[in-house]
Amino acid sequence: MKAQVRRMIADIESEVRYTRNAIGKDRLSADVMRVMAEVPRDAFVPDALKSMAFENGPLPIGHDQTISQPYIVALMTDLLQLDKDDVVLEIGTGSGYQAAILSRLCKKVYSVEYVPELSHAAALRLQQLGYDNIEVRAGSGYGGWAEHAPYDAIIVTAAATHIPEALLQQLKPGGRLVIPVGGPYSYQELVLVTRDEQGKTHSRNILGVAFVPLRESATPYDSETAG
Ligand code: SAH
């Protein structure tokens, strides 16, 4: 393992220990940590920021958006408790990094990104890197992606003021949903929602986080500019 990757893994492990009371565990799943060490984060950040790619912080990816902090990516992935046969929905593809991590732990990832330029760049990047079980779509994911529902797990990587009803409806019994909930650029909490076999949902607040806002409309970007 490269020295900078080893340092990123150590930084994630130490932040996990530091937040053990909130997250209720001392360490994340070994599979999640293995995949964090394998997926090359430097391939997902802009050229000018490559030297910072393995630091444990978010980085700008253009269009006022960010690639999430490695610790948060690892934690959210861990909370989803993925099985290799799972089908996963991600809202907020951004750079495609989180989708790449998920794809190594499940059967198929469907990911929706609002900003068409980011969506197209992520789709191309993922294809060039050989991640062939991820489908990326440009548009709003506020209403989920009904065509491939229901999902074993759903991850939202932008902060919502409330949990969108459509996402709950597209979650399988036994499924897990991870979503930051809170006002734009104000206090947000990472929430884990589980749906039991009877269809009843249970939610648990995990810890305070800072995400860019989820656009809460089902209206896509102007399709003329989507290219
Ligand atoms: N998961 C990303 C980080 C995402 S940042 C990564 O690994 O790089 C959050 C992303 O959510 C942004 O790219 C933003 O454009 C997108 N977003 C915001 N509202 C959205 C919506 N309603 N539907 C789909 N994507 C949305």
What would you note in describing this structure?
The chain is an alpha/beta fold and 227 residues long. The chain has one domain (3-226): Vaccinia Virus protein VP39 (Rossmann fold, 3-Layer(aba) Sandwich). 28% of the residues lie in helices and 26% in strands. The protein contains seven helices and nine strands; from the N terminus they run αααββαβαβαββαβββ. It has helices at 3-18, 20-23, 30-38, 70-79, 97-103, 116-128, 165-169, and strands spanning 59-62, 65-67, 87-91, 108-113, 134-138, 151-156, 171-182, 188-195, 201-209. The protein has a seven-stranded mixed beta sheet with strand order 5-4-3-6-7-8-9. A two-stranded antiparallel ribbon has the order 1-2. Strand 1 (59-62) and strand 2 (65-67) form a beta hairpin. Helix 1 (3-18) crosses helix 4. The longest helix is centred in the N-terminal third of the chain and has 16 residues, at 3-18. The protein is globular. It starts with a helix and ends in an 18-residue tail after the last strand. The relative contact order is 0.13. The model is unreliable at 222-227 (pLDDT under 50). The protein binds S-adenosyl-L-homocysteine. S-adenosyl-L-homocysteine binds at residues 65-68, 91-92, 94-95, 97-98, 112-115, 118, 140-142, 157-158, 212, 214-215.
